[in-house]
Design a protein that fits this description.
The protein is an alpha/beta fold. 32% of the residues lie in helices and 24% in strands.
Amino acid sequence: MDIDQQLFKNITAEARNNTDLLDSFSPNQFKSKEMLIKMVNNLNVIDSNSEIIIFGSWYGSILVPTFKKVKRITLVDLDSEVLNISKNRLFGHYDNINYVTKDVFEWAPTASRIRDTDLIINTSCEHMKPMNELKLDTKAYFAYQSNNMRSIEGHINCVGGIDDFQKQLPDNTKVLDKGIIEDSRGLRFTLVGKYE
């Protein structure tokens, strides 16, 4: 992750009164996002002309600074408050971020941006319906994460293991890499691949 001085000041100022934002930078979040980032980097397909869409983006805390040099990042989340903080208090000095306050399952199937994107990231699959219920017209790469942490509020679609998670992928996807990482509350699963 590449945190510039302005972003560091923004995070420090906002985090004084926002424990939720601090949680988005927790060791567990870093650990799981670090694995996803390494797997995406191993694909060697993302550059300054790339477009990335992040489903269930939350604040975009770790992923936005990591991929900040791409052409465009689109953050999609139901929570207008977290996107507002992201836009106006964290990443206001970045000019390549778009914010979409919508349900992923309502926005993505008809969004023309999906067809042109290079990478779709979802580190919040446990918070929404399975990805195979989301019909996308794309040839994008994907990096999806879920977990087995059923006791956490808002986790409506946890999986028992990486094979269970893979069964939730659309039929028109091919897995190129997968990983499992343990954090203090359970296991996180990562699937990286491509829509065909």
